[in-house]
Structures are given as C-alpha cells and as structure tokens.
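Provenance

Sequences were taken from public entries as deposited. Structures were produced by running a predictor on each sequence independently, with no templates supplied. The record for Cytochrome P450 2E1 from Loxodonta africana is shown for reference.
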Amino acid sequence: VILVLCLSSLLLFSLWKQSYGKGKLPPGPTPLPIIGNMLQLDMRNIKKSMQNLSEAYGPVFTLYIGMKPAVVLHGYEAIKEALIDMGEEFSGRGHFPLSERSKKVGVIFSNGKTWKEIRRFSLMTPRNFGMGNRSLENQVQEEARWLVEQLRKTKASPYDPTFILGCAPCNVICSIIFQNRFDYTDQDFLNLIGKLNENIQILSSPWVQVCNSFPLFIDYLPGSHNKLFNNIAYSKSYILEKMKEHQETLDINNPRDFIDCFLIKMEQEKDNQESVFTIENLIITISDVFSAGTETTSTTLRYGLLLLLKHPEVTAKVREEIDRVVGRHRSPCMQDRSSMPYTDAVVHEIQRYIDLIPTNLPHAATQDIKFRNYLIPKVRFVSPTM
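Predicted structure for Cytochrome P450 2E1:
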C-alpha cells in the first residue's frame, strides 16, 4: 500500500509539473503509475488505438509512454501545421533509447547541424551526380529489368514475390552505396537482407516498445533487443570492410559511389574540427539508408501488387496508360511521370492506403512552442500519426 501511494504521489507530482511548471499540455487519457497509458494501446493495431483516442480528445492529445508524456498529432491537418508550417520548430528527433547505443549521428536519429548536413549530402549526392557514369535512374531501370526477369521465370505459376521484392530495392541501394549490385543468390547479399528483415520484425514488436519506455531493461534483461544489437554490429562490420576497400582504391577525380563521395568530403574537411563527415557518421548513415529504404520500398511494392489484383478496373487503366506513354520496347523514365497522371495518382493512393509507418518517427520540439493554444516544452517528444 505504501509503495502504491508513493508511486501515485510521484505520478501526480509529475503531472502537476507538466501542467503548471512547463505550460499547458494537450488533454489525454489519465495515465497509470509507472506504465502510463500503455494498457490503453493495442500494440497489434496502434493505428486504431490512436484513432479512438483522437476521437475522444481531438487531433492533438497527450499520451504517457511509461512515465514520459508524448504529444500526439493525429491526422493530416495537425501534422501539416506542425511538420510543414512549423517544420523548423518541430525538427528535433525524439528520444529513442534503443538507437542511442551509438552517438546521435547518421540521418534518422541525429539532430541539429549533423542532421541537416548529412541529410542534405545524402539526398543531393545520388540525385545530382551520376556516380560511375550511371545515374540513379539508370540503376533503378537496371534493377527493374532483373526483377521482371525473375518474375518471368515463374512462368505464371503461383508464386510468393516477397523475397525478390525485397532484393530489388536493397540492390538499388547497394548500387548507390557500393557501386555494384549483387546476384539474388549471393550469400553476403542474402545475409545483409536477412539481418535487415529481422531487425524490422524486432523493431515492430511490443517488447521494443517496452524497452524504449523503460531503458533499464535494455542493459539488464534478455530479449530480442540483444539480437537487434548483434545484427546492427554485423551490418556495421560489413560496411566498415567495404569502406576500407574503397579507401585503398579511391580516386578523388573519379568517385564511383556514395562511399567514395563521402570519403572525398572527409578529406576536404579534414582540418575542420567540427566536421560531421567522419567514419562513424559514414557507417551509421549507410546503415540508416539501408534500414529506411529497403523494407519500406519492398512492402509498398508488395501491397501495391495486392491492391492492383483486388481492383482489376484500376489495373486496366494503369496498363492502358503505360502502353500508351511508355510502350513495350523501352524502360519507363522519370520524364514519363508528367504524362502519366493516372498511374502517378495510383502510386500515391497506394502509399496513402497502406499507411506504412502509422506512428512515423518520433519528433521533438527544438524550443518551447505554442501550438493550438497549448504549450509544448522544448525537447518534448512529439509523435505524428495518420
């Protein structure tokens, strides 16, 4: 009884501090001691849980993940107002303990100057520079031809395309990062894909949500998070080996891929003590690109095929537009997009419909922000959901 009273008092003090000491947070369900609102969330259908809470408390509400409050933005209007209209104020990255075993570098979980410079470099390097005399568009077209060839080998028999739909986007990233694509039977390539897929499954599990809410569990309890760390260590080791191979053959006048471009940037800024272009940042950035680009793209392709199968009338219109604009004797290119409004709309509708990452990545306020008559304190965890 004494323990419950102490914990309840601690929680009430925390709530008072949030409400009066740091401004007015949005309304939300009453949290329980220690665990917050976790019992009110269905981890198997987080989207539905957030929708129900939004109907009760509005598009901006407060949810306690463990003992820490998170401001949840639900729906298009609230997210646009925060992340687009007030993008700079909400550009911080939220607390994510499992990712913080490494320093806050890379693209996904870094903040401030590091995030801005690495993000800009990661976006512009493949887009504006035809590495190895091959543009990003060429690499995507080549991989698409390999993917179609693999599908033709099935001879229209029943087939689960999950594996090759995962190989294709991963190979495009390999072409950008390592210069070369891999055969779908290459063991190193299969190991890399296997680790990436396993990590996605672990990160999607309820246990990871528990670990992020109670970081002490990470160091002192067994669980799937340890497998996650082992897989990350494997990927880092593989990337480090590739980076060393690039250092030995680097030609600063003829960069072949993303690693070469990053190494050249490192050399250019070697005298800058505050440079974000370091070996550690290179390794984590490449890991982030694989993590963010492989599973998301393959899942979108898989669901896209499923939705086209379920809606043959839409498929017929897409097919007609492709035949009319592209034909059957060349690969599609980005210039075709403006002439294919229906196909473009279908692709966007697939992305909207499948709601790939319903809770998005955690954001944080970079300063105290007044948002819709609420005061969101600096570094407060903000979770956008659709």
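Residues 112-301 form a domain with the Cytochrome p450 fold (CATH 1.10.630.10).
Confidence is low (pLDDT under 50) at residues 18-22.
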